[in-house]
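Write out this protein's structure.
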Amino acid sequence: MIQVPAARIQFLPEDRMWIADRIQEVLATGQLTLGKYGAQFEVEFARLCGVRHAIAVNSGTSALEIILRSIGIEGRDVIVPTNTFFATAAAVVHAGGFPVLADMDPASFSLHPETVERCLTPKTAGMVVVHIGGIISAQMTALQDLARRKNLWLVEDAAHAHGSSLNSISAGAFGVAGSFSFYPTKVMTSAEGGMIATNDDGIAKESRIYRDQGKASFTVNAHVRMGYNWRMSEPHAIIGLKHLQRLRAMIADRQAIAAVYDKELADFENLYPLRIPPDGICNYYKYIAVLRRRLDRRQLKATLRERHGVSMAGEVYEEPLHKQPVFVKYAPGPLPVAEDLCSRHICLPVFSGMQESEAFQVLRALKEAVG
């Protein structure tokens, strides 16, 4: 029986050689951080997002915290979806703000303008919109309009959304800034790393200061902000640069598998996919499907793995933040849509290089286990 993994990182042999040659180069020169490859990575990533600036850092978490510090949120409320990763709300806390957890839109697993409106307070500074699974919500324009009307800023947590777009606008270009993650599970990776994308010259300048211990300049030992060591190394930038150059092809692989799932799931009674907006392009970091009836997901995963050789990807997310012990003190009370859908969805395997035969193995397994 073929084993279908939940995910697989793809580096083609020629790409591994390209990466190794350039790592040898930077090891020989000794310029291991803030060098020419990091600068090239920033230029090419800014071009991908259609923005003026991209600033490479050591993680997606750092990218988001740096944006929030650059904006200045200390003592202010920031609206965050409850169905997101720990880092989204943690970045708000670490930057001195107060995360206000909001319920989710069932159509996109993202924020909805109505839920944001209900969360507004006199201390609200802005919102963090998360592109869950690489899907940019059809409500994005309405969220932008709400931000303008209420004089709020909008930040994108685009950790999942490299190469995704809506109405020909790329992830990272909708708000004042966007943060991206290059953790190994992502559509593209630099092993570890993150990126800030922005059209705002001030945020770009502050971000470069914050990432390098708060120094006014790389060459001057004058610290003007309470920064941190958030730099990206040259070896990480080299890895990320090569994956960025492969990104279009890697997304095409994922979209081909998603098209198989879309077609075949139409015949399922108890499982339906989360749909992409008509004018949207999704990178399919996750392929999200919703169970019409609640099942024991642990048992389902065990059955799929042990009887069918299929490993499932992690949810987005299994438990909403207001149920997480560290964020209980920020819980506004029940958030019923998130509590329901966080417990009632699964993520099907999808990755670069995945074969159509593997997708059909997943579908056969689900048909038997779920129907």
